[in-house]
Amino acid sequence: MKRLLPLLLGTTLLLAACGGENVEDSPSPTMDATPEPTVEATPEPTPYDGPLNPLSGLPMGEEWVNRRPVAIMLNNLKEALPQLGQSQADIIYEVPAEGGITRMLGVYQSLEDVGTIGSIRSARPYYLELALGHDAIYIHAGGSEDAYSKIRQWGVDALDGVRGPYMSNTENGNLMWRDPERRKHYSLEHTVVTTGEAIQKCFAEQSRLRLEHEEGYCYEMTFAEDGTPTGGISAQEITVPVSNYKTGRFVYDAGAGVYAVEEYGEPYVDGNSGEQVTVTNVVIIQTACRYTGDSLGHITVDLSSGGTGYFACGGQAVELTWGKEYPDGQLHYYDLQGNPITFGAGHTYVMIVPLDCDISFA
């Protein structure tokens, strides 16, 4: 970060003397020199050494550091946009679902000052794996039968707005509800929302939920103020065509040091603020995505075999390798020399895409 050094100012005064002809006894007027102003040096800011968000590397309140994050399923159909509150997620995961569409999983370490979040959609097994990798509490509205089976099998702490007591038609103190404004313009399945405040209230009433990480839990992500990788390629623009339905695009803003996110050929906007979502880090991992053959077009996404992908930060990108233990291991990323990826302090967007996805950089 650039620091402004104190600028020492000097003042030069012009002294003038006036005299008149034939006025011998008139004393010449004198001017007292104005003393130079005292300029105090601006002290350099003290480096921050307080608690850091383990998902972003940014400062946060001590009370949140060891909390289990919240992972929330987000609808990403074009007709359901804009999403709400996704810009406040520390990590956004985007993964294909049936029919070429994608859904997102927003992971929030802190719920402080988080507003409305939504719209909330149903679970799939691979989103459960991502949530488990963060030891997160999972919030969803419905799910595939396979997802419900895995919730029971894996012991996922999942709060469900369809088969659970966590949703109402109106906001009345429950965890989720159907937003009345969205109901005026959207199909019913695109209207389920929550808020950071509602989540915290629900957690306070759920004695069965473990809200803190167990002793010794440690995240594998590391951060630096500047996470720009060395020896990479230019990544001012990144285009990721997930399917015929969905293409993601990231455009680097050198002045702000972040990527502006686009999808469906338009800015990816947070409906709460009306502003485009920006992230510091972009991760793209490629893996096998296969249809299950069922009548609903569900797919499987392999998150346990590892593979290759890319990491971009600061307008540069490098190839990476990735891995994850099944089902609850953390995703970990390495450069081609086997060194762990260091992220830039800030939010991260992870796209999980098929092996044949034609990713391009410019």
Automatic annotation (TrEMBL):
Residue intervals of the DUF3048 domain: 55-204, 238-350
Disordered: annotated segments: 20-50
Pfam families attached to this UniProt entry: DUF3048 (PF11258), DUF3048_C (PF17479)
InterPro entries attached to this UniProt entry: DUF3048_C, DUF3048_N, YerB-like_sf
Coiled coil spans: none
Residue spans of biased composition, Low complexity class: 33-43
Name the UniProt record assigns to this protein: DUF3048 domain-containing protein
